[in-house]
Amino acid sequence: MWLSNRNAQIAIGLMVYGLALITHTLPFPWNEGLETMRDLEFVATLSLLFGILKAHPKHRAKLMLGWLVITVFCFLSMLNTGVMIICPRVDRGPVSFIWILISWSLAGVVAHLWIIMYNEYVELTIGAEQPVEEVHPKAQEALRKPSLYPNTENLTISVHGKPVEEVDAKTQEDLKKPSPYPNTENLTILVHGKRMEI
Questions:
Q1: How many Cβ atoms are within 10 Å of 70's Cβ, its own excluded?
Q2: Do the Cβ atoms of 96 and 38 come closer than 8 Å?
Q3: Which of 2, 117, 135, 182 is the most buried (most CB within 10 A)?
């Protein structure tokens, strides 16, 4: 019950928003720049919760797609913050890597949760992935062997022991007459690439 798809999606949405809120711990100049990202993630999380809990199943995928797009922006903002902390301080001496580590580890967790939610989105829109059946080695070997049955390139049809081209006109007319046997009216025979209907 607790591990259903619905509960997992709600938990992932709330965890990503929680991770976005953790960016308040970053130094002030970068924290101010991430305010837009946190606001967008809040709106995306609310729309995701609405889509999971109340929306019509037809609209659930669209709301989930909106969450996925905004969460990519959140992920890229966290990566960019780590880079922006490094760049201005490189020529001024040692950098406190704790802020970079916080920013990039948050981005890594967000990316992992995004991938889980993306798989849920694909399952919702396209359907569950079919498991790939492995072919037994003996079956693979049998598939590689040439067929014992002739293919249409080697097929020769003879009427009364003669190839069809050599059959006289009366026999060919007899072949064109309706057959007394059922289901032979639509029978088509290919002879040396030429079509012959019976």
A1: 21
A2: no
A3: 117
SS3 content of the chain, % helix, strand, coil (to 5): 65, 5, 30
CA distances from 169 to 42, 62, 77, 165, 176 (A): 85, 69, 84, 10, 11
- Enter the pTM of the model: 0.57
Residue reference for tokens 């916080």: 102
Q: What is the CATH number of domain 5-125?
A: 1.20.1260
> Which amino acid is located at 127 in the chain?
G
Pairing between β-strand 158-159 and β-strand 162-163 as defined by DSSP bridges = antiparallel
Terminal alpha carbon distance of the chain = 64
Query: Which are the contacts of 160, defined by CB distance < 8 A and separation ≥ 6?
Result: 167, 171
Burial class (CB in 10 A: 0-12, 13-18, 19+), 77: buried
List every span in the chain annotated with CATH 1.20.1260. 5-125
β-pairing, 194-197 with 158-159? Answer: unpaired
C-alpha span between 91 and 157 (Å, rounded): 87
Write out pLDDT tens, residues 30-73.
677 688 888 899 999 999 999 888 888 788 888 899 999 999 99
**Residue showing tokens 């929306």:** 55
Write out pLDDT tens, residues 153-166. Answer: 555 555 555 555 55
Tell me the pairing of strands 188-191 and 158-159.
unpaired
